[in-house]
Amino acid sequence: MRAHVLIPATLAVLVTACGSPEGSRPFGSAAPAGCAQLATVAIANSRLTLTESVAAGTIQLTGVQPGAPGSQAPVPAHCHVQGNINERTGIDGKRYAIGFDLRLPAAWNGRFYFQGGGGTDGTLRDAVGVLTGGGNTSNALMQGYAVVFTDTGHRDEPGPNGPYQFGLDPQARIDNGWNSMAETGRVAKALIAAHYGRAPQRSYFVGCSNGGRQAMMMTQRYPDMFDGVIASAPAYRVPLASVQAVYDTQLYARAAAENAPAVDGRPVLSKAFSPGDMKLLTNEVLNQCDALDGLKDGIVDNWPACKFKPEALKCSGAKTDQCLTGTQVDALAQSFAGVKDASGKLLYSDWTFDAGLHSTEWTRWKFGDSPTATPNARNIILMTGGLAMFFMTPPTVTQDFYAYALGYDVDRNAAGVFATNATFRESSMRSVAAESTDVDAYAKRGGKLLFFHGVSDPVFSVKDTVRYVDGLRQRYGARTDDMARLFTVPNMAHCAGGPATDQYDGLSALVNWVEKGEAPSRIVARARPENRDVTTPGRTRPLCAWPMQSRYNGSGSIEDAANFSCR
Ligand code: CA
């Protein structure tokens, strides 16, 4: 029985400690259920495990080291709910459920915000409504959104391959790929309706990396669920990007083997390039490409025209601080040209040389800083782990991802991301990739899709996101501008960071587009003083809707966005 229909009006008032703004309910809506009463609201295939009223203040975020930057978040008074959807036993004998965290602010703005995940998920984070871009001190929950987050159907286990154990269960793969977001959205909307007595007026999905992929997936497979989404640095072809990651590891391990003695018979990956080598590289990128946009300012705005030649840095004799070895140059050239299949066709994407590649936000993905034969590069820990145990069919269970990467034969093995078998009936390119440009249904209802992507992103190539938007334009022509817009951010690494203007208000741009019809063409971004990679703190620049680029107007401070135009 649905509890909320039994709550007398007087009780409904008493239980609104974390309840709805009284008087805002439209005529004819159901009586709202208070926070504790939500546990008794019947929603198919789901069960609440927590309902609590939380006072306004600050909370310690789950899964973040206490005391670390960004480990706490401000919250308003809200009703906090957690629950499980589709509790089940997997083919591996383990217990699974789609876990979710839902936060319902007392002062609700009538909107629903789905906070996207990251990596291969597996942690139930707090649904405070993380915003797009870097250095945010507020969140969507503080702005009055009802916010949900999902662990995507599994929890990380201990050990190096613990985060990827779920890849052995086919339903867990599908839940992570697409089903958990749809199920969480369904249950969250039902709980919002029960709590406030009305459905959300607008629904948004905002995520970066895997969260960006999730956002795209919703527009393609669940076009009725959201009115607007932000897909930042989207992992929309992450199985193939992971093949690129092992290819990178093989190339950079060769450079490392030449630069430093092997340990335990393996190259020390962190020795592939020194910090000085990377700075040499980006100085040369600026030398060749900074002025293409008409202004030498440390930013390559006209990056599509940058035909960078790393060969310019090749040592003529022995390696010095002023040149790169032939092996280093070859590794860069081959990596940025993109991993290819046996026929020479690009498997994933090519990449662009940009001026932010020297930041540790880039190098920690490719090389890491481990001095041992066990690299800590994220390309090994995250990308290779995901490839071996989640994206490949059949999976390979291993704890030694470095050995897996070094032994991966792209020509023979890469077909595994497209493969199925009797156990895994959806390939990872079917269940995880969100590459369909058929968003007819989403476009028809006026849905909006906003992309952001750093040009110095080491994980997913900005060119691959351009490729998707170009695909939309092939299908929809000029109408594309009414539903999808891409903003590239020069020098920005993955989601944020790098010597970039990485702080911007993407959510307001999206909401104004959806609710007021104001399509964004220029978004002002700021370089954060607290970002250690930034040498021009406080600098502001316009981010421009692709294919427009920022151009200096010719007078006034080059630190002020007001003196730049999108052209
Ligand atoms: Ca420039």
What does it look like?
This protein is of the alpha/beta class and 567 residues long. It folds into three domains: 1-62 and 79-199, no CATH class; 201-236 and 434-567, Rossmann fold (3-Layer(aba) Sandwich), CATH 3.40.50; 239-420, no CATH class. It is built from 14 helices and 15 strands. It has helices at residues 9-14, 170-196, 210-221, 238-259, 275-289, 326-337, 360-366, 378-391, 401-407, 410-413, 428-431, 440-444, 462-476, 506-516; strands at 46-54, 57-60, 72-75, 78-89, 95-105, 111-115, 146-150, 202-208, 228-232, 448-454, 484-489, 522-526, 540-544, 550-552, 564-566. The protein has a nine-stranded mixed β-sheet with strand order 1-4-5-7-6-8-9-10-11, sandwiched between helices. The longest helix is centred in the first third of the chain and has 27 residues, at 170-196. 52% of the residues are buried. The model is unreliable at 1-28 (pLDDT under 50). Calcium ion binds next to loops.
Strand order in the largest sheet: 1-4-5-7-6-8-9-10-11
Please indicate the count of domains: 3
Largest sheet: 9 strands, mixed
- Tell me the distance between the termini: 59 Å
Mean pLDDT: 94
Give the radius of gyration: 24 Å
What best-fitting shape do the alpha-carbon axes yield?
A: globular
The counted number of beta strands is 15
Helical segment count? 14
Helical content, roughly?
A: 25-40%
Beta-strand portion reads: 15-25%
Give, in order, the helices and strands: HEEEEEEEHEHEHHHHHHHHHEHEHEEEE
Bound molecule types: calcium ion
Low-confidence stretches are 1-28
Computed structural class? alpha/beta
**Quaternary organisation of the protein chains:** single chain
